[in-house]
Specification:
174 residues; six-stranded mixed sheet; 6 strands; 17% strand; binds adenosine-5'-diphosphate
């Protein structure tokens, strides 16, 4: 299966997706926040926070796996994107690292399908176009040596995000 055929773009709420894993754009504490993190914890139920409490937080650019509890997804991979400080503070490397670490963890657990939100593109302020390019490029390059992973969904929460990802995916196809 060609790598680009494994990538899909869907618009909507990531907590509604039936995939093996949904990725959470969490903060360093892993103890809950707003945005996609709040939505995931609401849908998963209080047991998710209990498991997160045992993890001792997560460094920026890293990722940690939990169960999915009341979500349709079996697991959640919590990753911590960089806060955007203008681009000279290693933001691009940290964002790429989030996608890499999530896919490595998925591969280690024989996970076949994942959905990513637009990590760092909410309150963390990462410019959407740059972030989408990093997301698509990093996922494509990581999937090359992870043939067990069959599907990666980019979950766009609104029209603007969907359009930016559409463009990034088209550019990747050229
Ligand atoms: P960060 O702190 O990494 O910026 P946010 O949760 O603020 O995290 O935003 C990350 C992205 O997730 C934003 O693009 C936001 O629009 C999107 N988002 C928020 N809620 C959801 C949801 N329920 N499903 C999918 N994406 C969501």
């Amino acid at each position: 299966m060609a790598t680009m055929d494994k990538l899909t773009l869907q618009q909507g709420d990531i907590t509604a997706l039936k995939v093996d894993v949904i990725v959470n754009a969490a903060n360093n504490s892993l103890l809950g926040g707003g945005g996609v993190d709040g939505a995931i914890h609401r849908q998963a139920g209080p047991q998710l926070l209990e498991e997160c409490r045992l993890l001792g937080g997560c460094p920026t650019g890293e990722a940690k796996l939990t169960q999915g509890y009341n979500l349709d997804a079996d697991y959640v991979i919590h990753t911590v994107g960089p806060i955007w400080y203008g681009g000279d503070e290693g933001e691009a490397e940290a964002l790429a690292s989030c996608y890499k670490r999530c896919l490595q963890i998925a591969n280690d657990h024989q996970i076949m399908s994942l959905a990513f939100p637009a990590i760092s593109c909410g309150v963390y302020g990462y410019p959407l176009k740059e972030a989408a390019a990093i997301a698509v490029e990093t996922v494509v390059s990581e999937l090359m040596d992870k043939p067990e992973i069959k599907q990666v969904i980019f979950c766009a929460f609104n029209d603007e995000i969907r359009q930016v990802y559409e463009t990034a995916l088209l550019q990747m196809n050229q």
